[in-house]
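Page 47, continued from p. 46.
Same chain as before, 353 aa.
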Amino acid sequence: MNLFGYFQTVVRGELSAMTLAGELPAGLDFSRVTAEPPRDATHGDVATNAAMVVAKPANTPPKVLAENLARRLAKHADVASAEVAGPGFINLRLKESFWPKIIEAALALGDAYGRSDLGKNKKTNVEYVSANPTGPLHVGHCRGAVFGDALAALLEATGHDVTKEYYINDAGTQVDTVARSAHLRYLEALGRDIGEIPAGLYPGDYLKPVGQALADEHGDRLEKASEETWLPLVRAKAMAMMLELIRNDLASLRIHQEVFFSEKSLHDSGEVRDTVADLRAAGHVYEGRLPPPKGEAPVDWEDREQTLFRATEFGDDMDRPLLKSDGSYTYFASDVAYSRNKIKRGFKERIYV
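Result:
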């Protein structure tokens, strides 16, 4: 038994009875009538918005409708009292004799208790963790991992077709920084004195195994090669090993995601380019200037004309840049292309933790 689903049925049943009795006009839509926990637990056990959503199409004042409905609900075998609150909400207090029914249902159903087909197999994407593959997960990442996995499990239990996804930020300058840091550890593995790790590179010991793996695989060949030659090789190795590290950390939490989606693939396939072009064709992109952050110009603030997405037309507090000053795409542009990619893959519900 789902407590709120049960009382949603009870409330809708009383509305139907009011229709049959001529207290409400025929043909009203009760689909938006809900039963849920009250905002304040001291107000009762169940709250319903029935009078609020039915009053206007019924051409009846919400409070009058609420009082009529409350009188009916108060007579129900499981209801101790029904009180009208505010402009027309109804708060129900349940009889003590009702609660054992919940326990009996839980014992009878066992592991199936709480499961339902509420989601009606809706294709749902839950993206969580998505930490940059520049090092191990930290406790903040793990907090999001546990929350996201629990949410995905709840959605699956309520009849959603869930895909658990991780977005790999394997494009951009931070990936090359990881590669250069790993190359330094590679030289160290060859026995070279690398001194202090230069500012701007990643100093963590977690890159030492990457350096050793590169030394085992390539010997000293990468030491003699140009950066243009070794950078893509080292970058690919570092990304693969960092992702393996992250997957192992997630596995230790018993978290296994079905999809690891590459940001780089959006650029390589032209999806970012095409998304920006389509937004421009639809009139959502313009050339303009943005004010400095929070009204104060930082030392490195560059007041220039930019290619901007009209984000404020969709509820954002500012329009968002799509291109950097060097002509490359911003991280936001990749995000927009990624969101569109999820839509193209058929996800009707898209959740980002």
